[in-house]
Amino acid sequence: MDIMTRTQPAGWQLYRLGQLFDERKEKVSDKDFRPLSVTMQGIVPQLETAAKTDDGDNRKLVRAGDYVINSRSDRKGSGGISDYDGSVSLISIVLKPTRAIYPRFAHHLLRSPAFQEEFYRWGHGIVADLWTTRYADMKNIRLFVPDLPTQKAIADFLDRETARIDLLIEKKQRLVELVAEKETMTRDTFTVKGVSDNHLMPSGVEWFGDVPSHWVICRFNRLISSKVDYRGRTPEKVDEGVFLVTARNIRNGVIDYERSQEYTTEADWAALSARGLPEIGDVLFTTEAPLGQIAQVDRTDVAFAQRIIKFRANEAMVSNDYLAQFMMSSQFQRSLQLFSSGSTAAGIKSERMAHLFGLVPPKAEQAAIVSEMREEKRKLGGLIAPIQGSIDRLREFRAAFITAAVTGQIDPENWSRRGTTDRRLDQIEAEMGA
Predict the structure, then answer these.
(1) CA–CA gap between residue 5 and residue 432 (Å, rounded)
(2) Residue-wise pLDDT tens digits, 35-65
């Protein structure tokens, strides 16, 4: 028995999903073509250029009030009730609510973690770590649903209460952003002005402005002793093997091994490593999607995917540690954008990096910049950790809260009257300050 039918609330009826929704199959006409995106935040209009190569046969029709859900596991959790007429890609399933279900209740029900878990349990594998669920299967999912007035009451309750939780999460995320901005501002000052008072002079490079008069300005390529461009070959993906670092793993100066977990074969690892074995401290640079993310190699038993270039510093001029800090600076990032290309996603070709410039302080100042930035990151990380912990707890509470409401485990009227939500939020806040 799945979580959606584990306990039958009083007065709720058992349905199959196919009794609550019909699959929309109408052909997409030119006037209906308006492209929509299915995101974690819901259904949003998409730029016309993003789907300009499609035609009606490669899209699915959506009407305002339809529920759209991504069928693939790599899009898990995305979807919602559409406020727009338009069309979506073929990987989406478009559901037209019947008279037995209130649309806003459907929105919360189908986005709940409990339903998402059940939805993907009915899926079928395509390739490693990717599977899809078809309407022919999902229509047989069983779930208890109350009468329409109760559905509306639950939906109104969840709209109100989740909005409060979302506002609190948004405020905390803004605090995290402000702390991150402080780190960026500090890095921008240190890598262009230095850590102490220096005599400044015009650099002659627009994005640097005034720089210490005793620093050297040179072409960026002079700061590099070796470069390995991993573009041009797609490694084979397998369930187990050598960890494959992709552009998604490289974020804010570190390799985030949790963000994306892909693997390649020993043979492909050997082939990729033939271009140049990594060493601890080498600088990784993403060339597109996203452009300009930086990290340093902290393990040598991993492979690197496309859209990554590995730099090793010319130690006669700069250290790897300083090179990484300099490349993360807003000034260097701005120069990347100026020389990038691409209509939908900015990217930079390896040869165009020859047009970029580098700043070279004396070695002692480089070491001071790196040391100060590490200390700054340590202090700011101490501020971010409890805030991020609070955000995680709020998201967990929100998910459990929605599941409890759409499965009849809580009574919205009594919950609101007792102020249970307020007490739970107060508790999360108290835990953050502990």
Answers:
(1) 35
(2) 998 888 889 998 654 444 455 567 899 999 9
Distance CA 78, CA 97 (A): 18
Query: What pLDDT, in 10s, does the model give residues 321-360?
Result: 999 999 999 999 999 988 887 655 677 877 788 889 999 9
Alpha helices in 209-262 (DSSP H): none
Angle at 353 (CA atoms; ends 351, 358), nearest 5 degrees = 150
Placement of tokens 């259904």 in the chain: 43
- What is the identity of the amino acid at 310? K
Q: Write down all domains in the chain, each with its CATH number in brackets.
A: 1-145 (3.90.220.20), 223-330+337-349 (3.90.220.20)
The CA–CA distances, whole Å, from 225 to 277, 327, 414 equal 14, 16, 68
Q: Which helix (H) or strand (E) holds 303?
A: strand 303-304
Radius of gyration of the chain (CA): 26
Maximum distance among all Cα pairs of the chain, rounded to whole angstroms: 80
DSSP-assigned beta bridge partners for residue 147 = none
CB atoms within 10 A of CB 188: 16
Are 210 and 203 in contact by the 8 Å Cβ rule? The answer is: yes
Query: Concatenated DSSP letters for 47-91?
Result: -GGGGTT--GGGEEEE-TT-EEEE-BGGGTT-EEE-SS-EEEETT
**Amino acid at the residue 288:** E
Q: 229 by DSSP, 3-state: which?
A: strand
Site of tokens 């559409």: 82
For tokens 């700011």, the residue is: 380
Taking the C-alpha atoms of residue 323 and residue 285, their distance in angstroms, rounded to an integer, is 11
Which residue is it, tokens 């202090």? 379
Residue type, 311: F
**Are 107 and 78 spatial neighbours (Cβ–Cβ below 8 Å)?**
no
- Are 74 and 118 in contact by the 8 Å Cβ rule? The answer is no
pLDDT on residue 186: 96
Both tokens of 398, joined, read: 């929100």
- The candidate with the shortest Cα–Cα distance to 12, out of 397, 398, 405, 399, is 405
pTM more than 0.70:
yes
Please say whether the beta carbons of 14 and 5 come within 8 A: yes
Q: 108: number of CA atoms within 13 Å, CB side? A: 29
Closest by CA position to 328, among listed 168, 176, 180? 180
